[in-house]
Amino acid sequence: MISAIAGLFGRLNGTALPHEPVTQGGAVLMVLSLLAVAAILTYFKRWKWLWKEWLTSVDPKKIGVMYIVIALLMLARGAADAVMMRIQQATSVGAHHGIISSDTFQQVFSAHGTIMIFFVGMGLMFGLINLVVPLQIGARDVAFPTLNAISFWLFASGMVLVNLSLVVGEFSAAGWLAYPPLSELKFSPGVGVDYWIWSLEVAGIGSLLSAINFITTIIKMRAPGMNLMKMPMFVWSVLGSLSLVAFAFPILTVTLTLLFLDRALGMHFFTAIGGGNPMMYVNLIWAWGHPEVYILVLPAFGVFSEIVPAYSRKALFGYTSMVWAIWAIVLLSFLVWLHHFFTMGAGANVNAFFGIMTMLIAVPTGVKIFNWLFTMYRGRVHFASPMIWFLGFVFLFTMGGVAGVLMAVPAIDFQVHNSLFLVAHFHTMIVTGVVFGFFAGITYWFPKFVGFKLHEGLGKLAAKLWIVGFVLAFGPLYILGLMGATRRLDHYDPSTGWQPLFIIAGIGVAIIVAGAAVQILQLVVSIIQRNENLDNTGDIWNARSLEWSTASPPPHYNFAHVPVVQSRDAWWVQKRGKKPQSQPYHSIKAPNNTASGVLAGAFSFVIGFGAIWHIWWLFGAGFLATILTVIIRSSSEDNEHTISAKEIAAIEGQRSYA
Amino acid sequence: MVVGLLAAAVWYFHGHTVPVLEPSGTVGHKERNLIIVGLLLAVLVVVPVYAMTIFISLKYREGNPKHKAKYSPDWDGDRRLELTWWAIPGIIILVLSVITWNSSHALDPFKPLVSDKPALSIQVVSLDWKWLFIYPTQGIASVNYLRVPVGVPLNFEVTSDSVMNSFWVPALGSQIYAMPGMSTQVHLMASKAGGFYGSSANISGAGFAGMHFTTQAVSQSQFSGWVKQRQQSPQPLSQSAYDGLATPTLNNPVAFYSHVKPGIFDDIILKYLPPSDREAANLHIPGASI
What is the pTM of this model? Predict the structure, then answer.
């Protein structure tokens, strides 16, 4: 009887709880924070508000905010992992063994990479896309609002799975890409790799659905007159990035499924024995993994293409060549995956081909940098904090790019591959490209969606701390790599002489953390002083694209009248032209809120949890429930409501203009 | 402060070598030279970008007291300028592409080095979590310790009897993956005597950080003497000794073996293949007949 009941829980039993002080501390901290949030919501009687206004919302402006909130929380988690790694590597030398065991250390760096790419990078990206794209193309919504909510909740569900591994079970210790044979059952018998697989499976399908949704939105829902070559550059970058998602993420989904089949059903896709081939996995995962880098960085480039003209009070330089540069990067990013494993022993011709393709990407990227600089040239550049992030990006990203071009030469890569030189390189690209770009974007668009500006002085201070901290944290890593230090070491010998450089890197990370603390302070101060920084005009930066033509924050329907676009920089041109005659308002149809997003997310969490712990009845139930949720929602007739012309007139009447 | 930092850097690098930039092997030396050529080419783009960024930021900043800077808010492109920055980086990349093509062939790790001296064959097996080095001709083997003669081409055949690892001695040059059921090759040569750090560059599980070893490059005569001495080692590398060695251990101490079982390296690879493939594969593995 007891064994029958235990059988219902698959591999799950009492031993799943954390054993080590650091992980126990992390787990307790997380559970306590959740309880605190629940208590606050209960005390202020906000549960119903949360459910009706946010969780069931299909408004991309709200979904965008939820993406960004999750991404920033995950940034804190990923940063905590980074701090642990830096402390470990600064102290674990010779007779000392640092603060965590090697197994925990390996889980920490695996979680750090996974969380930073999938839940911070992708979260910030989809957050900004949700907020900005519909407004920039003059649309009132996305093509498939409910699907958008489902995509978000799949992302959230993947995020919950990653974090649950801290409390119940363990996380993968096989690195953020979990190469077999190490990630096969024989070498990783626990649930860690399964947590990794399923959190990415679930979140990855969310990303794919979201990409399809926004590609459709951009192609089909642009305001009248906005042909492709009049789209804002951010929209172009998003179109490029999401085209990559549409082609790359199915590869990820299938690869993870095959790995799971190996692990759960004893198949041999990637095992070393039984006819499997781990090299196939390495190829497949990078066929997704390399485009992923450009998926993240293209929208960040798009952000810079918005803020540089806005703060330079000048049109974007070289619009057409910017568009070509984006599509050159999109195409090339699918032709370079092998540069992640030149050292696997492909022949000289193959290595040289992929090396040359990789270097070619430097050309369109360089073109973009020159165009941004020439946007500033003969402009009137206002160095607001987004521009400080931009300057940090130009200086550091260029350096990282040089390291990248060097590593694209296979014979050089043989000497730096998997060393800390590589780690320093890709952090330079992702932190100064993606993270700096999205921080700049959040600062720039914050007043549009919240209604007031962020504190400028603290914003600049934060940017400077991040830049200085970054140089100190990653400069030493380039040198360490050239000294032969490989990545992912939880311990090393004092005779290597690496310790002083690891300590400097640790100081750098401390400065970055200080920068992040200033950002939290900035948010708090900005909220307190919000009345001094209100955006009453809707166009606080005197900017150029359509999102600035509506109120801040925008009404639920975005635009009372669908804008008619004559040219690029539609709002800039409209502002300088004649004031349009006032037109009568018409009623607008808007989608109803729905619980189906939350439910689909919850059920897909159940699918993942069942699969991870081999609780197959739960897995099947979750699968059925997810499908049913979608079918029921799709067959529902009553899913729109009308905002009457009178209501619109009332809302628009309250709007103040400059 | 700048002087202090420089002094600290000079003091630090006086005490420590940077093997990738100060290699002791012929391949590593060529790779170091490639790094320098690549950096010099990159400078051609980086310096103008930095100079332009500083110049433009200062001159066109809002509130520049000189007020002479031109303002052209609608100037949104210039075909010749744009062509320039498609073309110049393009030309630099073209030059680098030629270098890439040639160096990929010249420094292909599978390509034997040209030398008038006969090559020394060394078989490398990554295990959980240690390195086994087999000298098949000499019939000796060592764990977590590699000794090589200076000026002699070294033919490494690399495999794994566990998960994937990467065999890397930065002072000598190129690394190569060690993978189960396969053999990869890397050809290196020490140009200077000395003790060099080597390790696995690919995460391989719990004992990964302990998978480092010393590579000792010595003169040909010292190497021969060492071989003779090791051939007297009391412990033979029989199949059962190997099976014991293959069980997972952490921070395995250096160990030496004599009388290596002939063909053991091929057996390690072949056992991963289905029986039907083993015979066919046997014909293709270099060094299969010892």
Answer: 0.95
